[in-house]
Amino acid sequence: MSKERLIIFDTTLRDGEQSPGASMTQEEKIRIALMLEKMRVDVIEGGFPIASPGDFESVKAIASIVKDSTICGLARALEKDIDRAAEAIKPANSGRIHTFIATSPIHMQNKLRMTPDQVVEQAVFAVKRARNYTDDVEFSCEDAGRSEFDFLCRVIEAAIDAGARTINIPDTVGYQIPSVFGEIVGRLIQTIPNADKAIFSVHCHNDLGLAVGNSLSAVMNGARQVECTINGLGERAGNASLEEIVMAVCTRADVFPVETRIDTTHIVPTSRLVSSVTGFPVQPNKAIVGANAFAHESGIHQDGVLKHRETYEIMRAQDVGWSDNKIVLGKHSGRNAFKTRLQELNIELKSEEELNAAFSRFKDLADRKHDIFDEDLMVLMMDARAAEESAVYELVASHVCSETGESPNARVTLKVEGVEHTATAMGGGPVDAVFKAIEAIVGESATLALYSVNNITSGTDAQGEVTVRLEKSGRIIHGHGADTDIVIASAKSYVDAWNKLASQSLREHPQHHQGV
Ligand SMILES: CC(=O)SCCNC(=O)CCNC(=O)[C@H](O)C(C)(C)COP(=O)(O)OP(=O)(O)OC[C@H]1O[C@@H](n2cnc3c(N)ncnc32)[C@H](O)[C@@H]1OP(=O)(O)O
Ligand SMILES: CC(C)C(=O)C(=O)O
Ligand SMILES: [Mg+2]
């Protein structure tokens, strides 16, 4: 059975732009409008042409360039606003004038300072004026969410008689709750005698976080247009978010009697564009477009997703424009995710014991570092294998005291062939002091030909990777160590280098090797 169409009316460029700090230039509005067109949005509200010459020019430019979507301009119920909006949308293939007036007692009395009769008269005048320019006229009862039901019926019936083909019921201040709002919209459609001559639309704000819920409840009760914005941008707490409405209708096709014509694969790129143009970051846990919307860090979820994606995902990341879902390694991750990532990095684990040992080192690192990147894993595995191959010396503890005006003092404990040895030393810097303490335990020194530190990933909690080059008796060896503390990374690299020297000399002169 074919479904009715739900018209997606995007107002990112009008209500979204009303968000403090979200003003856009004409060029930016055009870029966003082109993305919305590509996404197959039905109606793009490009701006409020009377607001400024810039907004007028933006709507006009969008109307000239965008051909597949209807271009709409907003206008108060005033002649000058409507004439200006008509002028701006003139170049459009399909143009709409959206005129509005408030219908709630609080707005009529305190803001408009008009009687209900005057409001009805003004609404009728505005719709008729707009109809002189286009057949596609939308009328909104601003603050319908707090308007009296009987008065709404009266003004809407009059607006439809005057020629409005879309009737919008805005919950301007986000006051409504889904069950009540849906019931109001349904009852308006049932009660108003000429309701069948117009498409009913909703425009919900998010002051109580209910904009999407209210919109969807209205759809279940007969609304066939939803006004929404990318990333939920808009006045105060924003508008209903386009991506959430569209994906709810699409994902729960078993529940909603409607379908949209949106190409959902453009959702994430459009969200990114709006975020970069406005400078409003998208919160990581935002549905559909947040960085974590398709990311899994917990072991149990990762295990489930790796076995069967749908255990923890109700949509496919690719269907909304992500390249894929993400398995993020962190302190909540489990063995399955860890092992899978190592396999993807072509790091083979020889045994279950090796997996367990590597996993426990990974957990230690994850306790100290939020995000574990592939580079972290590679160094972790390299370090572990190098240590396994040639572990004469094992770093047990390193303590450095570094005070302004004082020479740094280090105390290092190494396990040498199973026995712990501790030494202290002063140095020119904390790393120098640690190296001297290690040499005191090893009982030898070597020429330090190179010392370099690189951060493996970015951020102040990144791991530092230290490489040292030691020259001793004509031999050159390198040691590596990584840690979130670079003094400890240095100690590890120095111990690694001494382990390599020890294993070389053991291979060359087994008879001379006497430990420490
Ligand atoms: C719920 C919404 O999102 S509504 C859209 C809100 N968006 C904006 O306001 C952004 C663009 N706005 C603007 O640039 C300016 O407010 C303008 C150009 C529209 C008007 O500017 P000004 O003429 O300086 O008026 P100002 O903004 O101070 O006050 C609004 C006037 O419009 C009247 N008004 C408000 N809504 C309507 C309406 N729908 N129909 C007719 N008059 C209205 C107010 O009663 C007030 O009239 P008054 O000056 O006679 O008291
Ligand atoms: C202009 C109208 C539709 C509006 O933005 C609102 O009421 O929130
Ligand atoms: Mg609004």
From TrEMBL:
Pathway: Amino-acid biosynthesis; L-leucine biosynthesis; L-leucine from 3-methyl-2-oxobutanoate: step 1/4. One of its GO terms (molecular function) is 2-isopropylmalate synthase activity. Coiled coil: none annotated. Mn(2+) binds at residues 15, 203, 205, 239. One of its GO terms (cellular component) is cytosol. Its cofactor is Mn(2+). SMART domains: LeuA_dimer (SM00917). It comes from the Bacteria. GO terms for biological process: L-leucine biosynthetic process. Its EC number is 2.3.3.13. It catalyses: 3-methyl-2-oxobutanoate + acetyl-CoA + H2O = (2S)-2-isopropylmalate + CoA + H(+). Keywords: Acyltransferase, Amino-acid biosynthesis, Branched-chain amino acid biosynthesis, Cytoplasm, Leucine biosynthesis, Manganese, Metal-binding, Transferase. InterPro entries: 2-IPM_HCS-like (IPR050073), 2-isopropylmalate_synth_dimer (IPR013709), AIPM/Hcit_synth_CS (IPR002034), Aldolase_TIM (IPR013785), LeuA/HCS_post-cat (IPR054691), LeuA_allosteric_dom_sf (IPR036230), LeuA_bact_synth (IPR005671), PYR_CT (IPR000891). SUPFAM superfamilies: 2-isopropylmalate synthase LeuA, allosteric (dimerisation) domain, Aldolase. Residues 6-268 form the Pyruvate carboxyltransferase domain. Residues 394-516 are annotated as: Regulatory domain. Pfam families: HCS_D2, HMGL-like, LeuA_dimer. The keyword Manganese applies. NCBIfam families: leuA_bact, PRK00915.1-3, PRK00915.1-4. Catalyzes the condensation of the acetyl group of acetyl-CoA with 3-methyl-2-oxobutanoate (2-ketoisovalerate) to form 3-carboxy-3-hydroxy-4-methylpentanoate (2-isopropylmalate). Homodimer. Belongs to the alpha-IPM synthase/homocitrate synthase family. LeuA type 1 subfamily. This is 2-isopropylmalate synthase. It comes from Thiothrix nivea (strain ATCC 35100 / DSM 5205 / JP2).
